[in-house]
Design goal:
By secondary structure, the chain is an alpha+beta fold. It has 2 domains: 1-87, Nuclear Transport Factor 2, Chain: A; 88-148, Nuclear Transport Factor 2, Chain: A, CATH 3.10.450.720. The protein has helices spanning 9-23, 77-82, 94-101, and strands at residues 4-6, 31-36, 40-45, 63-69, 72-75, 89-91, 106-107, 113-119, 122-130, 133-135.
Length: 148
């Protein structure tokens, strides 16, 4: 199991500030925020502290939330759905959504940045816009092969 470190109060303040600046999310999580040596972010329930885990085999601690990248905060699909994003949200039409869930890039008009990808009321994940192309970041194993 990988070594995870809980963010201290100063690091948490910076983390929430990035969420606000980048996605317009205001508020804090009732979770422990952990980070790996590879800058991956995980959220862990505070109830974990109450468990006696010595007798348990633990594969992973927490939900994968995203990753600190040099140019911003890239969220996982679950991380994108977990926050209440108010900015940098891109809404796709039906064709764009079909391309996105199948792992393809989508042409859009938006400034270069990490964005939350949405179709109607569904949050589909996080992508990065470069030169008006929404780069798909859905892991290969989570992409759909066909739509019915």
């Amino acid at each position: 199991m990988q070594k995870l470190k809980a963010l201290n109060s100063r690091e948490l303040k910076d983390f929430y500030k990035k969420l606000d600046e980048q996605y317009g999310h205001i508020g804090k999580f009732d979770s422990i925020v952990l980070v790996s040596s590879k800058d991956k972010i995980y959220l862990l329930s505070r109830d974990y502290e109450k468990l006696d885990v010595d007798k348990l085999k633990v594969n992973n601690k927490g939900m994968y939330f995203g990753k600190f990248e040099r140019d911003g905060l890239r969220l996982s699909i679950e991380g994108s759905q977990f926050i209440d994003a108010k900015k940098n949200v891109v809404e796709l039409d039906a064709d764009g959504m079909e391309n996105w869930v199948m792992g393809k890039d989508v042409k859009i008009e938006h400034s270069t940045d990490y964005v939350i990808v949405k179709f109607k009321d569904d949050i589909l994940g996080c992508g990065r816009v470069v030169n008006n192309v929404l780069r798909n970041m859905v892991p290969k194993e989570r992409r759909l092969k066909e739509l019915t």
